[in-house]
Amino acid sequence: MTLKNQLKTLSVLVIDDDDFIHDMLKHEFGQLGVHNVKTESTGKHAVERIQNGESFDLIIIDLIMPDMDGVEVLRHLSEYHFKGAVLLLSAQDQRILDTTATLAGAQHIKVLGAIPKPITIDVLTQKLQKLFTESQPNTLQVKDKISLEELKVAIANDEIVPFYQPQVAFTTKQVKSVEVLARWVHPERGTINPAAFISLAEESGMIDAITRSIFRQALPQSKELANILGRHLNISINLSTDSLCAIDLPEQIEDLANMHDIPCSSITLELTESRLIQNLISTLDVLLRLRLKGFGLSIDDFGTGYSSLEQLKKIPFTELKIDRQFICDATNNNTSKAIIESSVNLAKTLNMLVVAEGVETAADWDLAKSLQCDLAQGYLVSKPMPLDDLIIWLNDKQSW
């Protein structure tokens, strides 16, 4: 279904005590083909609508209102298990908006954004596209539908396979590397997103087996790709922190790379910041020897953990990946923009490559480029795809 047809069925509730905002949003929604737009001037009356069983796909909430503020409205939406999305719209300081969005997320409410007034029709369109993109049920996402026994069988049968997402240079638009991402190609359920099984794998101790399986499959495919293209693309592979407990891991990966005639310098190992250091001594031992063998080290989801600067000081990273949450917010959020700018400056000082994740719009691209990020990764460039599709894509887009 096209965005235009999806918008025709959208039901919206605007909660704001300013009639001008009501009229402006009704006009903007009308231009987009959305005509089922209700308004309320108080949070109390809006909550009563939800309590009485009215259903909305999207609720736009101002933070400062008489009798019940926006934070209280969110609390009630959480209590009533609101299944739609919210868009926070307020004249308050951006950091207050961001904190409110964080609170709503912790209350299991889907937040499309936290936008200062006034909202433009371009930003509104962008947020509505995000609403429909995130709600498309194209992959299985619910962990409790996956049993441990199913997961074990999938690993044994190589059903969990490498997908590839290109990374392109901002300056030349040439494809420089690909990130290897695990996807479960189930014989009956179709392609299963890692969100549905990675937590189970971590909790059950199976994540290391998945990591090693992806390495075993991805490296020969990388060699095949190099033979077709006539050059090595750098590949980035997510490394489970559980794997860092194996002291001989650097030798194992080096042997695999040598077996398939892939330079170690063409392989970057990505480590998620939030799960990085558990056993500092063994972790540093393994990571140092990986670097000495020529492998690159990337700190993924930078800025989302609690010890980013400490980890940059202790570990010889070669690449910094700016988390998608900062990229997608930065065009309308000065705080996110400042975080990206300072992260890029820090990375450049440390001679690190900077990858902008989650580049989904032309505005994301322009901003990340202007802030001197090196590589772009995201749906604007390409979705993750299996090897055969990647080869076709690369033949068509050697320069994106």
UniProtKB/TrEMBL annotation:
Establish whether keyword Cell wall biogenesis/degradation is in the entry.
no
EAL domain sequence ranges: 144-398
- Could you tell me which residue ranges the Response regulatory domain spans? 11-132
Please give the SMART domains that the UniProt record associates with this protein. EAL, REC
Recorded GO molecular functions are: cyclic-guanylate-specific phosphodiesterase activity
EC class, as a word, reads: hydrolase
- Give the organism the record lists: Pseudoalteromonas obscura
Keyword Heme attached: no
Carrying 4-aspartylphosphate, the residues are D62
Alphabetically sorted, this entry's keywords are: Hydrolase, Phosphoprotein
Tell me the domain of life: Bacteria
Q: EC number(s)?
A: 3.1.4.52
A Pfam family that this protein carries is: Response_reg
Mind telling me which InterPro entries this protein's record contains? CheY-like_superfamily, Cyclic-di-GMP_PDE-like, EAL_dom, EAL_sf, Sig_transdc_resp-reg_receiver
| Protein name per its UniProtKB record | EAL domain-containing response regulator
